[in-house]
């Protein structure tokens, strides 16, 4: 068993993640009992993590973007190891929105105990369940509407990075049509009508730095729902820019509510983005799992 696992996405940050991971190994930053994983595909990443996670107390250092962290979180929670694994996150990907949320939260770590384990603090997770019973876990944001369109364009893109994301955003702006949604929060009807954007968040940021949920905290047992009503393409750019800056919650075109369980029905199932993973939409329920994960305060 290896006490420390480093999961590095070789392609993240144009190879920066791989360089950083190997430098940490060479410098013995985490000691000699360290396993370096550099999977070249999602399937290999899942397989290698499943073999490396033993069920004992371990530290998992994730070097990459939101997608790499999302994969690791899903493997840990699927194996029921949320209390056993302590995460560390070193951002190196094209999107590192959860890292922004970690810095934004201002959470104080627990004092180190006699065990010598890294100082850590709890983080909530989101469980996303579709009508057919299938599910995924998320740690940052579940989004639909124009965000789902951008995710679909990114999934079809041969490249990643900011330039690819900008192209995907422009494509989505040109072709997006608002969808009709029915939203229930904690078993109470909340909204029925057309929306351009819907985001259910644990963290404050998504979309490569968009401060969509400025009141969000990653360990308060609540999810934030932020949605933008249907709008014209002429209004879309400037209103999305306001959301990017984080001063939109009082705007008349914005819906906002907190809750522990959020159900979403789409009249015409579109596409969904969960922490950078492109998935089909449809009817789904998002539940907060309080204190599902542990994150280290130490790098």
Q: What does this 3D model show about the protein?
A:
With 299 residues, this protein is an alpha+beta fold. Helix content is 27%, strand content 35%. The protein has 7 helices and 15 strands. The protein has helices at 16-26, 42-52, 66-78, 97-105, 146-156, 162-175, 233-245, and strands spanning 4-8, 34-37, 58-64, 85-91, 120-130, 135-138, 141-145, 179-185, 188-201, 223-229, 254-259, 261-266, 271-274, 277-280, 284-296. It has a 15-stranded mixed sheet that branches. Helix 2 packs across helix 3 (66-78). The radius of gyration is 19 Å and the shape is globular. The model is unreliable at 108-116 (pLDDT under 50).
